[in-house]
Specification:
Elements: H1 3-11, E1 18-22, H2 26-41, H3 46-49, E2 50-53, H4 59-66, E3 75-81, H5 91-102, E4 113-120, H6 128-133, E5 138-140, H7 146-161, H8 169-177, H9 181-195, H10 203-209, H11 215-226, H12 230-242, H13 247-265, H14 274-284, H15 289-309, H16 314-326
Parallel strand pairs: 1-4, 1-5, 2-3, 3-4
């Protein structure tokens, strides 16, 4: 099911003991987690009834969390993120997860208890423990592909925001921004302000106010970094910044790309056409596992800097990051 179906179930009071939130689009993964927090925790005390575990959690810690009863509320929510990261050394964790899941046969929760959400960009469907989780509570979070799917997202998001858009606006936004859903959400709101209260957004509004930063330039940036072409990467970064691409969007593209390189480096398949997989494989070989971990830490530090914890301007922080990642 998609996030809309998840919301419909939750509004109808249909709550499952186990959800698998999986897909390459972080926007949808975040939306699914927000929905679960809203409906599972409701007005209960989150200090006691919400816990987030990472892939380095021990099997004992996972089972302790899953066996802890809610406090002053009917439900407790446990989120386990990326359980297959470092899969070779984490078999006991996934074994414990499969054992717990095998006991959760009811399709929906009838009384209070623990709700588990397993969240991952990708899971290997061939493994025994993933099969044990089943598909009943699977929330698909794949990114939209092509102008038609991205345009459908724009129309849905515009409706959610209460923004009227004329024919062709959704497709133009899709062409200019590409499958960057958080930025599309921002651009819809910006175009509505540009159009004025009660007015429909037109193609002219989008053409005047939305920069052309579709996926191809983003790919140019990540490809240049992955290939070690620092000068080209800085040139593309400058082009994107002049076009008005927000720093968080650019950083998000780098996070997504390096997460894929980490998965490839660890032998985990990533979705995509053959030429993309071949390109990622070649780029991943440039980096050792330790170097990729260092790159992810650098991206995290830049995220903090962009949010105001550093002395550098966001543009300068990104330039420094790009040089370091491509070096």
């Amino acid at each position: 099911m998609k996030c809309d179906a998840l919301r419909a179930d939750l509004v109808a009071g249909k709550l499952r003991p186990l959800y698998v939130v999986v897909g390459e689009e972080p926007f949808y993964r975040d939306e699914a987690q927000a929905l679960l927090r809203e409906f599972v925790l409701a007005d209960g005390p989150t200090d006691f009834n919400f816990e987030r575990l990472e892939s380095d959690a021990s099997p004992g810690a996972l089972l302790d969390s899953l066996n802890t009863l809610p406090v002053m509320a009917p439900y407790r929510l446990v989120v386990l993120r990326e359980p297959e990261a470092g899969r070779g050394s984490k078999a006991p964790l996934t074994d414990a997860l499969a054992s717990w899941a095998s006991e959760k046969r009811p399709e929906f929760v009838e009384v209070g208890g623990v709700v588990l959400a397993v969240v991952a960009a990708k899971l290997d469907k061939r493994t025994r423990w993933v099969k044990q989780l089943g598909t009943a509570g699977r929330v698909e979070c794949d990114p939209p592909r092509g102008t038609r799917e991205i345009g459908a997202f724009v129309k849905q998001e515009a409706k959610r925001q209460g923004v009227a858009i004329e024919r062709g606006v959704a497709e133009l936004l899709a062409e200019r921004v590409g499958p960057q859903l958080l930025l599309l959400r921002q651009e819809i709101a910006k175009a509505a302000l540009y159009a004025g209260p009660g007015e429909a957004v037109t193609r002219a509004h989008v053409a005047a106010g939305t920069p052309d930063i579709s996926e191809e330039p983003i790919w140019d940036l990540t490809d240049a970094i992955g290939d070690g072409r620092a000068a080209d990467a800085l040139s593309v970064l400058s082009k994107l910044q002049r076009a008005g691409a927000p720093a968080p969007v650019l950083l998000g593209a780098l996070v997504s790309h390096f997460r894929r390189l980490v998965r490839v480096r660890h032998g985990t398949p990533v979705p995509g056409p053959p030429f993309v997989k071949k390109k990622l494989d070649g780029q991943a070989r440039r980096y050792s596992a330790a170097r990729l971990n260092s790159c992810m830490r650098a991206i995290h530090e830049t995220d903090l800097a962009i949010k105001g914890s550093g002395a550098l301007r966001p543009e300068a922080a990104l330039e420094r990051l790009v040089i370091g990642l491509a070096g």
